[in-house]
Amino acid sequence: MKLLKVDTLAQARERLLKAAKECLPETEHVALADASDRILAEDIVSGEMIPAFRRSSVDGYAVCSKDTAGATESIPVFLKVLEEVEIGHPAVSKIEPGTCAYVPTGGMVPEGADAMVMVEYSERFGTDEVALYENVPYGKCIVLPGEDVKTGDIVLKAGTRIGPAQAGTLAALGVVQVPVFKPWKVAILSTGDELVRIDQVPGPGQVRDINTWALSCYVKKTGLELVSAEAVRDEEVLLEEKIREAVKACDLILISGGSSQGKKDMTMEILNRISKEGVFTHGLALKPGKPTILGYDKEKHTLLGGLPGHPAAALAVFHLLFVWLWKQVTGQPDQPPLEAFMTTNLAGAPGKTTCLLVKLQMAPQGLEAEPVFGKSGLISTMAEADGYVLIDMNQEGLKKGEQVKVYRF
């Protein structure tokens, strides 16, 4: 039996990133309506000011601030109302001392006015006079041109995921076609003679196919395009045929299962046969996740990943390597970890980085991280977890009460 010459997590990431630089995602322009959850491929630079005019942030009266000096609830000032500005229409009057204009929220502030008095501090008399009960300073409740966005400002940076707020910003700038990264195309092959369909009742020694579904969901959540996902028997000829077929159409192939040394060797031999560069990582100094293999087909520009068969380990490795890689090549910012306190002492794994699943809970002293104990074959351990803590391979372990960084999935 061959001994695995494992890579550290950092080494595996470095090798993956080197390979990925030869198959960086392409960019495309999509309609704003189709850009939700896509990743910006370019900085969005504003070609205009927002707002383009002086705008009121309240319902009220546009005034010369000096006219309100000394105004109180018992001693109002009286001003002549020149107009009622309609939302979406320009103001036509010019405010001079002794005059004002009613402006709704978002409406255009007339020339000459330098402050707004909220309608709550006013009382109308007739059609053209108002009593104001508030002394307002210069500039109060007026949004200046370009105060939100100036011409030439970088409003959204490349690598930003487009959510509701970002879509609203793009709409405000009149961006109709959005530059985004094309998602990598992904194929998933779950291997194992013990796997049955999820609509079947497993017989003795059999289990339902979990990884196909769990990985498919995570691939989509990451923003990648799932091309195919299927379970395959542990037959070398069949597996090689499926991988060769997937390489033609995909940027990333994930093969999960076959945790035993012999089956992993079979997967590695297939990948080395069908790919020009072949396997560059055979084993990972990670718990869980040691039986991980990574490779690259230089000719087809396809990344190859052999993941552990145990569901929690497969998801953890996919997150630590391929989710990380996609964020790197698309410039997405790292999600900041949460600070939490360990609830118990825990030993590390000598020579391995430990990915410790934890669930978070509030306590009087702050956020606590409680380990989710369970073997890597148990999918329930992943389902219970809110995130994970990485214990360095040179670290003896963690102590109860020690502050740790919790990374969220």
TrEMBL record:
Pathway annotation from the record: Cofactor biosynthesis; molybdopterin biosynthesis
Cellular component GO terms held in the UniProt record: cytosol
Record GO terms (molecular function): metal ion binding; molybdopterin molybdotransferase activity
UniProt key word Metal-binding: yes
GO terms under biological process: Mo-molybdopterin cofactor biosynthetic process
Enzyme Commission number, as recorded: 2.10.1.1
Keywords per UniProt: Magnesium, Metal-binding, Molybdenum, Molybdenum cofactor biosynthesis, Transferase
Catalytic activity: adenylyl-molybdopterin + molybdate = Mo-molybdopterin + AMP + H(+)
UniProt KW Coiled coil keyword: no
First-tier enzyme category under EC: transferase
SUPFAM superfamilies in UniProt: MoeA C-terminal domain-like (SSF63867), MoeA N-terminal region -like (SSF63882), Molybdenum cofactor biosynthesis proteins (SSF53218)
Domain named MoaB/Mog: residues: 187-328
Cofactor (UniProt): Mg(2+)
Entry similarity comment: Belongs to the MoeA family.
PANTHER family registered for this protein in UniProt: GEPHYRIN, MOLYBDOPTERIN BIOSYNTHESIS PROTEIN
Function: May be involved in the biosynthesis of molybdopterin. Catalyzes the insertion of molybdate into adenylated molybdopterin with the concomitant release of AMP.
Name the record gives this protein: Molybdopterin molybdenumtransferase
Source organism of this protein record: Clostridium fessum
Lineage start: Bacteria, Bacillati, Bacillota, Clostridia, Eubacteriales
